[in-house]
Design a protein that fits this description.
The chain has 14 helices and ten strands. With 321 residues, the chain is of the alpha/beta class. It folds into two domains: 4-50 and 149-319, 3-Layer(aba) Sandwich (Rossmann fold), CATH 3.40.50.1100; 52-143, 3-Layer(aba) Sandwich (Rossmann fold), CATH 3.40.50.1100. The chain has a six-stranded mixed β-sheet with strand order 1-2-10-7-8-9, with helices on both faces. The longest helix has 17 residues, at 150-166. 55% of the residues are buried.
């Protein structure tokens, strides 16, 4: 469905609109695994989220009719903020974003700030997703899926191109998994360039949807979620990522909520990197499974930096020891 040619085309579309984000060595995490760890800092991307890549990739391909008719998306926050931002730059005015009630205020504020119409409805992501789909069909908008749209996935895959450009001999790349769009795009790019690189996904213990989908060989579009600090990683998986999961994902590691909180603080304390909890799960996997990565060269994708300030204060107070 998606090839490296699609990702190369996406890069040509979006290259003048986004940053090539830094890839920095973490000496603290390198010491932990007695190897080398490099952080791909998508938390320093525009809108502080990797999803701007997929947003531009999709919006730049819309027809004049689709642009005029309007677009709609559901989001845990970052996808919506990035669609809103990119649409404002490209001159699209009819943009509608649904988010669940648990979405952090910082993300809701960004969505509204860039001009999209925000609807807060649904107790969780899966519920909000269903409500948004119904509204989209009713009004005839173009649906922009955060994780199961070929153009969006190709945009996220440009991260893999940048990783291989700078460090083609990595042993493994560690990527958060929510719906699965980012790991799918990155893996397609990386494995086309160097098939020996392991692509390892990480999920919170509160919602191991992709892991269970792969084990059961069942597409879980919705999935029950326990309380989680990672609002961006909960709910079901995307259809395209599920279909490609066995060729794109070498392993999935499940991490504790406590280690995710610890990872946020560790990144600030030692690397001066501000990451939201959903973006820090890759670091949490190093903290939880250091022996899995012993003596390896590892790239860890830090996907976003839109952390709620009150939560940040709470984490720093509880884990800054």
């Amino acid at each position: 469905m998606i090839t490296i040619k699609d990702i190369l085309r996406a890069r040509r579309r979006i290259v003048s609109y986004i940053y090539q984000t830094p890839l920095e060595k973490s000496y603290n995490l390198s010491s932990l695994i007695e190897g080398e760890v490099f952080l791909k800092l998508e938390c320093q991307q525009l809108v502080k989220a990797y999803k701007i890549r997929g947003a531009y990739s999709k919006l730049l391909k819309l027809s004049p009719h689709e642009r005029q008719k309007g677009v709609m998306a559901v989001s845990s926050g970052n996808h919506g903020a990035c669609i809103s931002f990119a649409a404002s730059i490209l001159g699209l005015n009819n943009v509608h974003i649904y988010v669940p009630e648990v979405t952090p205020e910082i993300k809701k504020e960004k969505i509204k700030r860039y001009g999209a119409h925000l609807t807060v409805k649904g107790k969780n992501y899966d519920e909000s997703h269903q409500l948004a789909l119904m509204a989209c069909k009713e009004y005839g908008y173009t649906w922009i899926d955060s994780c199961s749209d070929e153009d969006v996935i190709a945009g996220q895959g440009t991260i893999g191109l940048e990783l291989m450009q700078e460090l083609p001999d990595l042993d493994a790349i560690v990527v958060p998994i929510g719906g699965g769009g980012i790991i799918t795009g990155i893996s397609i790019a990386v494995k086309a360039i160097n098939p020996a690189v392991e692509v390892i996904g990480v999920q919170t213990e509160a919602c191991p949807a992709m892991l269970v989908s792969m084990k059961d060989n069942v597409f879980y579009e919705t999935y029950p979620t326990k309380p989680s600090i990672c609002e961006a990683l909960v709910g079901g998986v995307g259809e395209i990522p599920f279909k490609l999961s066995k060729q794109c994902i070498d392993e999935i590691l499940i991490v504790s909520e406590d280690n995710i909180k610890r990872a946020v603080v560790e990144l600030i304390k030692h690397d001066k990197v501000l990451a939201e909890p959903s973006a820090a799960v890759g670091v949490a996997s190093l903290l939880e499974y250091p022996d899995r990565f012993r003596n390896m060269r590892v790239g860890v994708v830090i996907t976003g930096g839109n952390i709620d300030f009150a939560l940040l204060q709470q984490l720093l107070g509880g884990y800054n020891k």
